[in-house]
């Protein structure tokens, strides 16, 4: 501590009663700590090592654990970009897709050959979706073949995971050869599954879950009438009377399932709907009453499916086998009671290893792979059925999270980063600070000086913090000025750095709404892998957390996989590209293809991201964008809250006509055009380089800021008619 004690003694004036030096020396450099005149760069001093030759993409892959949570679909290529392997382990080197090239194709202006879409952006890879479905089917087929199971696997996709039209249509298309079906949990979901399965396999199951009223059951019976392989699963005992009554009126013989409440309980967060006190399903007593009621109605043969759900993210095959074994016992008992049982639906629960730890003790990981999951299920069902001499049932699962999570990536930009902006200390400012201190404050300063001389680090922090509290109180009382408070920050910052106690974590401001695009992080603390998608051939020199655009303190991501409270990041180049200079810095959130889009809200009226679908191709960049859709505009999100953008525009336009005159600063036509464009643009921030007018670039714009048509306004054909509706105002 000698250099620090020299700084404290020499650089800061002593309290009254001690002689002042007429010439105070500048602060000395503390050994191992940056000079006080350069404190703003202390946190990021490691940036000088970013381009060290020994750092390679493989180091970044290990740092971000990409090979753990991302295999076999994501890796780091030799350029330092995230690479997508659309066919998993079967992907050939020339088929890998550079994610950065996809983002540039989507976001570059049309004049540069891009699509002009604004970020944030969801990139969908239907090839990955197809591979996930095929891998799941293959895992069960292998388990069935190797264990001599005497029936087959026939999965369904629960559309609640992601109801996007193209996702559901892809699953029906890709799964047709496997008789893959769909599951619905509400009336609108039932309508979309009915429509989509008209193009699927006639044997594909349409499983109707969720609470039901007469209209829901009527729709399900109509689906049966349309020759869709529909099963009405009873979630409540009261639903049975509606099924019996309506089916008789329509002359439709229904296929009925029951959802059982198992005793087996998943102890993690996602197991809250399992166990005897779970939200869904029938107890054994209620199941017996259902059997009796069906028998009395001459419809016991309609009972053909048993459904259960232990909970999402089942952590281990031990728990899985326990639950499946219990359900298989119920299945066999229903056979004994005379039901024509055919299918055991094991529900969801096939988990995703979000952090790559392969741990059974975490809500964000699982300790098994697809093959181990399928083997455990088949073995558990087979064991019970063989013991009871019951014919092996068709095994059905509702593995939505496992099917869709990997195929979708959320891309967003860092627009700026916080800077440690403590001013450099000068002898004048330090002397000015001490002159304004109370006697107690001067005593704290003397104690700080003495602790520094003795090399007592903890005591230095104690007195520095105490001094800071006294100064803040003085500032509130008006006896200290803002310049003195700034000088105090310099003293405390120097002390923290000198003893290695400063906080190196910086805040990166991202062009995103956590509430819209990562709602599970805000709602339940769900963690997703977040990684820079480029510059991975460079050493990250900063630890950061992410702060979104919303005016809400919860709009932050400050927990990351691996139990980390910060994320290794790179320094932004220039200003991150949002004020006309420097390069963009892109981050990706992975494994978020399930639930996030459906759960997202419009807090602060930030709507959803733009979306592109990308397929592998034999072109020069190994990919083709097959669909591009801009995110909701300001007008779109205003309509959600019952506003009328057209009337709002008219109100503003008339106001402008009354108050704005064509005096060379801002004319009415220009203002009307800008207002119209603002209703059409997305709510997110736009880089200056993508805009035709800014306050700095055009004196005639009056400080108005809006995006050019060339950027992204004309991407979607669907927007053309709406643009024409507003065009008269720009004449």
TrEMBL record:
Q: What class of enzyme is it?
A: lyase
Could you tell me which InterPro entries the record lists for this protein? Ala_racemase/Decarboxylase_C, Arg_decrbxlase, De-COase2_CS, De-COase2_N, De-COase2_pyr-phos_BS, Orn/DAP/Arg_de-COase, PLP-binding_barrel
Instruction: Name its GO BP terms in alphabetical order.
Output: L-arginine catabolic process; response to cold; spermidine biosynthetic process
Catalytic activity from the UniProt record: L-arginine + H(+) = agmatine + CO2
> What are the recorded GO MF terms, alphabetically?
arginine decarboxylase activity
What's the Enzyme Commission number for this chain?
Answer: 4.1.1.19
Q: Where is the Orn/DAP/Arg decarboxylase 2 N-terminal domain?
A: 152-405
Pathway as given in its UniProt record:
Amine and polyamine biosynthesis; agmatine biosynthesis; agmatine from L-arginine: step 1/1
Query: Catalytic center at which residues?
Result: 551 (proton donor)
Pfam families per the UniProt record, alphabetical: Orn_Arg_deC_N
Which domain of life does the UniProt lineage start with? Answer: Eukaryota
| Cofactor(s) this protein requires | Mg(2+); pyridoxal 5'-phosphate
Q: Which UniProt keywords apply?
A: Decarboxylase, Lyase, Magnesium, Pyridoxal phosphate, Spermidine biosynthesis
Tell me the residues on which N6-(pyridoxal phosphate)lysine occurs: 160
Similarity comment: family membership: Belongs to the Orn/Lys/Arg decarboxylase class-II family. SpeA subfamily.
**What's the protein here called?**
Arginine decarboxylase
- Taxonomic path: Eukaryota, Viridiplantae, Streptophyta, Embryophyta, Tracheophyta
């Amino acid at each position: 501590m000698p250099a620090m004690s020299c700084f404290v003694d020499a650089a800061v004036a002593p309290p009254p009663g001690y002689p002042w030096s007429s010439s105070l020396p500048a602060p000395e450099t503390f050994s191992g700590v940056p000079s006080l005149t350069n404190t703003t760069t202390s946190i990021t001093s490691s940036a000088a090592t970013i381009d060290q030759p020994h750092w390679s993409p493989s180091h970044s892959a290990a740092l971000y654990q990409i090979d753990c949570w991302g295999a076999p679909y994501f890796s780091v290529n030799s350029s330092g970009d995230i690479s997508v392997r659309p066919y998993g382990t079967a992907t050939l080197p020339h088929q890998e897709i550079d994610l950065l090239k996809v983002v540039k194709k989507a976001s570059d202006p049309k004049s540069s050959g891009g699509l002009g879409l604004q970020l944030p952006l969801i990139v969908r890879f239907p090839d990955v979706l197809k591979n996930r479905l095929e891998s799941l089917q293959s895992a069960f087929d292998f388990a069935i073949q190797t264990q001599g199971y005497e029936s087959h696997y026939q999965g369904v996709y629960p559309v609640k995971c992601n109801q996007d039209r193209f996702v559901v249509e892809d699953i029906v298309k890709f799964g047709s050869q496997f008789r893959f079906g769909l599951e619905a949990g509400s009336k609108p979901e039932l309508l979309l599954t009915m429509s989509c399965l008209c193009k699927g396999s006639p044997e594909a199951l349409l499983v109707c879950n969720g609470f039901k009223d007469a209209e829901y059951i009527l729709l399900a019976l109509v689906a049966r009438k349309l020759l869709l392989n529909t099963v009405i699963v009873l979630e409540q005992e009261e639903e049975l009377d509606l099924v019996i009554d309506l089916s008789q009126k329509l002359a439709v013989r229904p296929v009925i399932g029951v959802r059982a409440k198992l005793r087996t309980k998943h102890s993690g967060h996602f197991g809250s709907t399992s166990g005897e006190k779970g939200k869904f399903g029938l107890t054994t007593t209620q199941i017996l009453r259902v059997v009796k009621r069906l028998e009395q109605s001459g419809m016991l043969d309609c009972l053909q499916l048993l459904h259960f759900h232990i909970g999402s993210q089942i952590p281990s095959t031990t728990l899985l086998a326990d639950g499946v074994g219990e359900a298989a016992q119920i299945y066999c008992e229903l056979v004994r009671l005379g039901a024509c049982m055919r299918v055991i639906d094991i529900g969801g629960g096939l988990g995703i290893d979000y952090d790559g730890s392969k741990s059974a003790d975490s809500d964000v990981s699982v300790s098994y792979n697809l093959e181990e999951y399928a083997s455990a299920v088949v073995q558990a069902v087979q064991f019970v059925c063989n013991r009871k001499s019951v014919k092996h049932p068709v095994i059905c699962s509702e593995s939505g999270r496992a099917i869709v999570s990997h195929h979708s990536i959320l891309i967003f930009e860092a627009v700026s980063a916080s800077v440690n902006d403590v001013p450099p200390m000068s002898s004048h400012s330090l002397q000015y600070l001490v002159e304004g201190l109370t006697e107690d404050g001067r005593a704290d300063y003397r104690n700080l000086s003495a602790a520094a001389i003795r090399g007592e680090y903890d005591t230095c922090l104690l007195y520095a913090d105490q001094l800071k509290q006294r100064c803040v109180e003085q500032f509130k009382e008006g006896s200290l000025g803002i310049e003195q408070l700034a000088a105090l920050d310099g003293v405390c910052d120097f002390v923290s750095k000198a003893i290695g106690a400063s906080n190196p974590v910086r805040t990166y401001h991202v062009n995103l709404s956590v509430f819209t695009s990562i709602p599970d992080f805000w709602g339940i603390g769900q963690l997703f892998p977040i990684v820079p998608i480029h510059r991975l051939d460079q050493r990250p020199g900063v630890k950061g957390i992410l702060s979104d655009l919303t005016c809400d303190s919860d709009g932050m991501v400050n927990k990351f996989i691996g139990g980390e409270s910060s994320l290794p990041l790179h320094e932004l180049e220039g200003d991150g590209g949002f004020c006309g200079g420097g390069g963009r810095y892109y981050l990706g959130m992975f494994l978020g293809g399930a639930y996030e889009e459906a759960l997202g809200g419009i807090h602060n009226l930030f709507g959803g991201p733009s979306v592109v679908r990308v397929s592998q191709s034999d072109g020069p960049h190994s990919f083709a964008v097959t669909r591009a859709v801009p995110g909701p505009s300001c007008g779109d999100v205003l309509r959600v809250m019952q506003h009328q953008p057209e009337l709002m525009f008219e109100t503003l336009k008339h106001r402008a006509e009354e108050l704005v005159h064509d005096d060379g600063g801002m004319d009415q036509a220009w203002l009307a055009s800008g207002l119209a464009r603002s209703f059409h643009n997305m709510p997110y921030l736009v880089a200056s380089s993508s805009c035709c007018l800014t306050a700095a670039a055009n004196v005639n714009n009056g400080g108005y800021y809006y995006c050019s048509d060339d950027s992204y306004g004309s991407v979607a054909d669907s927007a053309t008619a709406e643009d024409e509706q507003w065009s008269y105002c720009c004449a």
